[in-house]
Design a protein that fits this description.
It contains eleven helices and no strands. With 275 residues, it is mostly helical.
């Protein structure tokens, strides 16, 4: 079993690379497509600039200086986040299929996968969020802002947000796929699991985005500065829809396209190991 686990683990790691190539290589690259909406949401939440203006600025930077954009700190943070998350998910799938003596291509939806991927993703995401908030939040001097740490309440909200996204990206698609109203004719072109892999991560953003915005608001306007909770609710409500669409623009390439590519490559590599 140890030899089989090592061999399958190698194939699983190779499977990570095509999925992470969506992070590192421009085919299509979630790193830049993820950095752009993240920047926009944070700058909009801090009233630094609007979503549209931020996206326009980021796209200009990507098109005019792509080499600098792709190796920038934000892009490298996102690349590390996605690669590590997929590597963890694939490792759990490989261990589970080997221990349970099931086909190597089998994926699991159990709590072990959720806990492992959430732990890795959340740890890196919280660090990424703290860096992005400092880089793209309100600049010093505006509304009395000074360099400060991320509030614990913001970290808690970000943690719940990440847990929802990970569950919707890795555990939920296989569960809802059989329930999707897709005809046999449509299934000849696209599988139920592939459709679910796009719908679940995107749809969950409608519910997780308010947590993200609330956490950012607590950083931008710390508790105790006189901001009333109704003012915070109004701010989150105003930004909710646009920010939800922006987060979908980040999540769909990363966990939609990336998830489908990762599953396909891993299934093919594991199938080759069984031959």
């Amino acid at each position: 079993m140890t030899r089989e686990l090592g061999r399958n683990g190698l194939a699983g790691s190779i499977g990570d690379n095509p999925a992470s190539s969506n992070v590192i290589l421009p085919r299509p690259p979630p790193a830049p497509t993820a950095v752009i909406p993240i920047n926009a949401i944070i700058e909009n939440a801090s009233n630094r600039c609007s979503l549209r203006a931020s996206i326009r600025t980021s796209l200009k930077s990507l098109l005019t200086q792509p080499h600098l954009f792709l190796i920038s700190k934000p892009a490298l943070l996102i690349s590390t986040l996605y690669f590590s998350t997929y590597a963890t998910a694939n490792t759990i799938d490989t261990i589970s299929s080997t221990v349970s003596n099931t086909p190597a291509q089998t994926t699991t939806t159990g709590p072990a996968k959720f806990l492992a991927t959430t732990s890795v993703n959340m740890s890196l995401c919280l660090y990424k969020d703290s860096q992005f908030a400092r880089m793209f939040g309100p600049p010093p001097g505006i509304a009395g802002t000074v360099a400060r740490t991320i509030p614990r309440a913001s970290y808690a909200l970000f943690a719940v947000r990440d847990s929802m996204t990970i569950f919707a990206s890795f555990n939920l698609p296989p569960l809802i796929a059989p329930l999707l109203p897709i005809s046999e004719e449509v299934e000849k072109s696209v599988s139920r699991v592939s459709v679910a892999q796009f719908l679940a991560p995107a749809g969950i953003q409608l519910f997780s985005t308010p947590l993200h915005l609330w956490g950012l608001d607590l950083y931008n306007r710390p508790m105790g500065n006189g901001t009333r909770w109704r003012t915070r609710v109004a701010k989150v409500g105003r930004d909710w829809f646009g920010s939800s669409l922006a987060r979908m623009g980040r999540i769909v390439p990363a966990f939609g396209v990336g998830g489908v590519v990762n599953s396909g490559v891993r299934r093919k590599m594991m199938g080759m190991q069984e031959v």
